Amino acid sequence: MVFYFKARPEAGDYTIFMGLDKYENEELINYGFPEDIWFHVDKMSSAHVYLRLQKGQTIDDISERLLEDCIQLVKANSIQGNKVNNIDVVYTPWFNLRKTPSMDVGQVGFHNSKMVRTVSVEKRINEIVNMLNRTKVERKLDLKAEREAVNAAERAERKQHLREKKRGEELERLEKERQAEIRSYKGLMVSEKMTSNKQIAETSKSFQELEEDFM
Fold first, then answer.
1. N or C: which end of the chain has fewer CB within 10 A?
2. CA dist list (Å): 170 to 25, 36, 156, 161, 162
3. Nearest to residue 60, comparing CAs of 27, 92, 14?
């Protein structure tokens, strides 16, 4: 089971989500999207909260209000972190999460610690948490199938783009050949097949000469 939330309208049209337990967290770790940003209370047990950005966006595109929604939600879903003030929340792109066979279910590390950001949360803001909870929806999804479907769609899109690119290159090649043929034909007409007025004057008899020959 995965819980989905809608960010506040002023934060933008974004979805925030988290797993029911560590087993769903494991699935989210395995089948995340490049646009996903992972949040967790630092050095405390908490839910693994994800923000799904728009395609093409990065962690640098997260606004202050959207960030506030995410950190408030992850704080509210930490048994220990929800009870205390002045905690830290860490967040990083999904693709920076590292999983090894020796790790427990739901446990993660990082490929690059420099890609992990930390933000301080002074206190819980009930107004924000309550607004987010009112948008909460539970969904039972096959995350693996969903990810594979997206992968298939992306592959089809890349193939279509490649076909269009090749078609465009072929049309461009044919047009260059056509233009080269036109230039070659024009050159041939000028240099070999066209006779100038001067050449006509030199090789043709005048009217007077024609008249004399006739007489």
1. C
2. 48, 38, 21, 14, 12
3. 92
